Amino acid sequence: MAKLSYHYPLIIRIWHGLNALLILLLIATGISMYYVDPDSRLIEFSLAVQMHNISGIILSFSYLIFFIGNITTGNRKYYKMPLKGLGERLLKQSRYYAIDMFKGKKKPYPITEERKFNPLQKLFYVIIMYIGVPLVIISGWGLLFPESIIKAMFGLGGVLITVLVHVAMGFFISLFLVIHIYVSTIGHTRSANFKSIINGYGWVEETEEVS
Amino acid sequence: MKIIISFLLTFFLASSLHIAAQPDSASLSADLEKYREANDFVDENEACFKCHAETKYVLVDEFFGREITESMCPDKMVLRDEYYDMVHKSFACLDCHAYEYEEFPHPLEARLEEPYQCIDCHGYDENYAQYQFENIEMEYMESVHATNVDNFSCWNCHDPHTYQLTVRDEESTIKEAIAYNNDICLSCHSDFSRFELLTDREEISILDTHDWLPHQAAHFGSVRCIECHTAISDSTLVAHHVQPIEKAVKKCAECHSKNSILMASLYKHEAKESRKKYGFINGVILNEAYVIGANRNPTLVTLTIVLFLLTLGGISIHIIARIIFKK
User: What pTM value is reported for the model?
Assistant: First the structure.
């Protein structure tokens, strides 16, 4: 049986909301800069640059809080992903999204007090939070100081590589955002997860399943 | 009779004056040998350089047995090293200057002679047709320098005794060319002692007037002043129509865009190369600097659009399935 439980503490919700806002700003301004044109209706270049820089700097600190928080608090348990049986778990979850959910079958890895994320979610979150976001932040800081950091290391080639990494990671994070928002509609009800990120109450299975 | 006496006296005294100024002769001889590789008139030119290449010269009056040391006016100085390393390095001084200059003291009629301007030698000559000096002259005549400043000429920016080729010179990097070109503007616009000789305007600070420009150092090192401060035309290789300040380019997107004006200005001479040489739009610019918005990789853009559409397609199919199965 699922019950409504206070599952998402305020600090996590604020962090999540701030990240959402910053990433939306970064995507909008990032696209505006990459596709800049005197006649385009995108955000004006100098404003986009400023907004992108400020949002990126705040996001870096937000990420630092996440990183330190995940080392020092119990929050890291939600991200633990034992390799043993990983493939099988991912397949089971994928099969649920592709076939089983339409047959009315139960979720193979429902949300419990001990498990916030299903195996597929976990894999995506770990890739995004431990590979994608760090790369986009490091390359972003490199581009904030192109003359001092990058030139000293590689010259122009360094700037180009940094830009490619930054743009590619920014794109993958954007793709993740689209998928993330869509998958959020597959909750207890279509809007349940969106309510949860605001009020903190989520539908949690009472019976514990081993993942 | 009085006139004849005065003339004879002047002539006699003048002919007794001569110049005695020579730097360390051993090092000069070695240098002269080096200069001979570039110029066939080194010895003839020394008649001028022995004073005009030095900060001081000694004026000797043999008749009265007197001598004085005079300072050479900086505007009249031409350094040998600079002269024999510039575009006109093969020239004899008297190719451009009147033969009367061979006399000392230089006669007034020679000193009042109008100096040649670029167009006088380079204009309407098929040997120089590709450099479009006629268009340059027309553009210059419309520039703020020609219309707002008295006694401004080609010389203020392009001293024919020192001018070097940079953008078209294969040995110079584009960064060196940019630095050399910007130095021409800054020699007056950031040196008030020279600036005030040409205008009554108050001192300006280039850093302050450009404080709106982010990454100032990167911009100043990567583009020429004229990229933003001249009207760019299709007909001239190097734009010379310097415009009033209110017409300067201030919109970032003018350079930071697919149709970057840098392709029509700084990189004009290279723009004929394939745009796709480096796999990037405006690849020519990319060769020297990454310009956000100007350097897009068409393959990556297509790839991202395809991936994005695939994702949206997958989600759409899932939504349709959910509607059908009421999930």
Answer: 0.77
